[in-house]
């Protein structure tokens, strides 16, 4: 299973990206982060970013493609760190632990990742036609499918999709911020679901 970047935009510092383009990209991302910090993700539109960064709207669209591309670029660094952790990092999240322990750690880690980046994740998902086709979501699904198959769970692809729904950013953010459910209750519930699932293997 290979690393899948969140989106195809050239990373900052890429040898193929001119230094002036790299500076322009970071300036746009800095302005975008300021807008999100000050007004929330819903206020981050292509027009608002162009105004904040004092560039033409065409520059923003050429850089990111659309609002979903902008959201996913903002998430890219955090997503990459999380992906590296579950693919190559130390156990129990990374290789070396049992499938059950890795799946438990993955869900717990993802819940806290969502709570840290929830507004951007929700906005990125809402701006795409199918949030389950986002590369990061597809990689997470594939990772869980592999762990479930290793554990001997029947129909691991469908079960991984069911678990993907359980980790839906919009639901997690709503549970905590609107319904007042503590993050610990969510992680305890995830741990219980995985334990019950593994008993069926």
Which short descriptors sum up this protein?
mainly alpha, 70% helix
Chain-wise SSE layout:
Layout: H1 19-39, H2 46-53, H3 57-64, H4 67-88, H5 99-126, H6 135-150, H7 156-166, H8 169-177, H9 183-199
Helix pairs in contact: 1-2, 2-3, 4-5, 5-6, 5-8, 5-9, 6-7
Overall number of strands: 0
Which structural class do the helices and strands define? mainly alpha
The unreliable regions are 2-16
Sheet having the most strands: none
Word description of this protein:
With 201 residues, this protein is mainly alpha-helical. It starts with 18 loop residues before the first helix and ends with a helix. The protein is elongated, with a radius of gyration of 18 Å. The longest helix is centred in the middle third of the chain and has 28 residues, at 99-126. It has helices at 19-39, 46-53, 57-64, 67-88, 99-126, 135-150, 156-166, 169-177, 183-199. It is 70% helix and 0% strand.
Briefly, what is this?
By secondary structure, this protein is mostly helical.
């Amino acid at each position: 299973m290979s690393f899948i970047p969140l989106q195809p935009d050239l990373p900052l510092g890429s040898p193929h990206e001119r230094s002036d383009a790299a500076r322009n990209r970071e300036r746009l991302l800095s302005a975008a982060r300021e807008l999100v910090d000050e007004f929330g993700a819903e206020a981050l539109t292509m027009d608002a970013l162009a105004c904040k960064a004092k560039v033409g709207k065409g520059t923003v669209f050429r850089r990111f493609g659309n609002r979903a591309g902008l959201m996913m670029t903002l998430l890219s660094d955090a997503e990459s760190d999380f992906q590296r952790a579950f693919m190559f990092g130390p156990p129990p999240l990374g290789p070396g632990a049992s499938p059950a322990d890795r799946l438990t750690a993955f869900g717990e880690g993802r819940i806290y990742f969502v709570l840290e980046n929830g507004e951007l994740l929700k906005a990125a998902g809402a701006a795409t036609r199918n949030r389950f086709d986002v590369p990061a979501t597809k990689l997470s699904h594939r990772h869980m499918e592999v762990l479930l198959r290793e554990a001997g769970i029947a129909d691991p692809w469908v079960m991984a999709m069911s678990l993907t729904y359980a980790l839906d950013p919009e639901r997690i953010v709503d549970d905590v911020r609107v319904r007042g459910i503590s993050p610990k209750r969510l992680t305890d519930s995830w741990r219980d679901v995985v334990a019950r699932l593994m008993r069926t293997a």
